Amino acid sequence: MRILIRVLVSAAALAVATAVVPGISLTVGSTAARVGTLIVVALIFGVVNAVLKPIVKAIGCLLYILTLGLIGLVVNGLLLWLTSWVASEAGLPFHVSGFARVKHPQKDKCDEISVHSHGRLSSIRSG
Fold it and tell me: How many other C-beta atoms can be found within 10 angstroms of the C-beta atom of residue 18?
């Protein structure tokens, strides 16, 4: 029962991610096909997380400590990207195209990362 609840919550989170994040897409017509695809992708994501996340945490323990756990966001994004690849290999219409860039409203450049440290705002920019 707990596994079913986790899969359904993961499927709901993936549905929200496909609606909110521009780089994540699900190209299915009917609602039933969407729900089925999201449940299968949630199962794949659960297996990928169960197998790889402990290994990545053990190997990258120092990075987790140095970044106070923020590297976990990158790790989760990469695991979702891997899930997208596995899903596409399985013939599922779920795709993660990459990490989204945020366009700055007053500038022509995209800000990828903004870090506030020691009272200064530093940005890594790409053209």
Answer: 21
